[in-house]
Amino acid sequence: KTVERGNVTWESPSNIALVKYWGKKENQIPANPSISFTLSGCKTKTTLSYSKKENTSDFSFEVFLEGEQKDSFKPKIETFFKRIEVYVPFVRDFHFKIETENTFPHSSGIASSASGMSALALCLMSVEMELTNDGYSENEESQKYFTNKASFLARLGSGSACRSLEGDLVAWGTHKEITGSSDLFGVKYPFKVHDNFKNYQDTILLVDKGEKQVSSTVGHGLMHNHPFAEQRFEQAHENLSSLIKIFKEGDVSKFIEIVESEALTLHAMMMTSMPYFILMKPNTLEIINKIWAYRTETNSKLCFTLDAGANVHLLYPENEKIQVLEFIKNELVAYCQNGHYICDQIGFGAKKL
Ligand code: PMV
């Protein structure tokens, strides 16, 4: 079909890993399987406008963040286009205008790469659909093709982005117990999850909004020749197996054990890389200690996880919301930069607008 121009808008959320992806092989293939909660409020909205161009020798695109031209995003998107062009050759045939905005403040230390890259990948898949002669039908098989390929493309933009398209739990990386799991794209968790995990809350404490000193790309790279890499990759498989049982049986105490251990293991891998580095800040540790004390004093199921930075994600059941928010205000806000935190919860994936 000849299409001269058009535009499409997708909104896609961020996600928070429970079993962490840390270490990769060639072509963004994860060294171990991971699983994440999809978030609800933290998301990126991207409009992709496309117009046919004559010259196909170069990629041609412009990027706007919240209405302002953002040339600093261009190298990452250029790399992304290079990686995906064999799968979506039309990227050379159009000039693209990428307009993007995040619901969370930029430079909040919340990575926008998962929500941003998944939104862009979904927009590109909508263009592919528009260009396909017979179009796609609404049947399950073509929807599956669309989502899997969008997740596949998102992975090539930023690994964890492939887990942002669906919800409320998404697994990425081949795991023997997860039906349909793949290293190439994320899949919606295929089993029933106990009601104890419905509407789980995630409050993100912004401990440090600055640019982190070591990028996740460099961090992943340091898992090559890492003395504990093999044991770590094996442990991720085991922890995912444990979580499958936990999600089935609803054991929140065991959930806490796995999730906190995963967070600390991620940072332990950083501390034992060569060169070694630390992304936690003193306030990260203050918060962790406060959470442990709070659990000892109450029978709360509040726990924490971390991504590759200093911020702390507080995970807890919905029925504890009032008490936990009170605890945050009284004891944890003091450790947040400018007292800033974001209340979010589990969500159900990307939406076409
Ligand atoms: O998607 P990347 O390459 O930015 O790596 C993300 C890694 C962690 O956030 C630390 C863990 C994860 O599984 O999301």
Automatic annotation (TrEMBL):
Residues 13-177 form the Diphosphomevalonate decarboxylase-like N-terminal domain. Pfam families: MDD_C (PF18376), MVD-like_N (PF22700). It comes from the Bacteria. InterPro entries: GHMP_kinase_C_sf, Mev_decarb, MVD-like_N, Mvd1_C, Ribosomal_Su5_D2-typ_SF, Ribsml_uS5_D2-typ_fold_subgr. GO terms for molecular function: ATP binding; carboxy-lyase activity. Coiled coil: none annotated. GO terms for biological process: isoprenoid biosynthetic process. Residues 204-332 form the Mvd1 C-terminal domain. The keyword ATP-binding applies. Keywords: ATP-binding, Lipid biosynthesis, Lipid metabolism, Lyase, Nucleotide-binding. This is Diphosphomevalonate decarboxylase. It comes from Seonamhaeicola marinus. The lineage of its organism: Bacteria, Pseudomonadati, Bacteroidota, Flavobacteriia, Flavobacteriales.
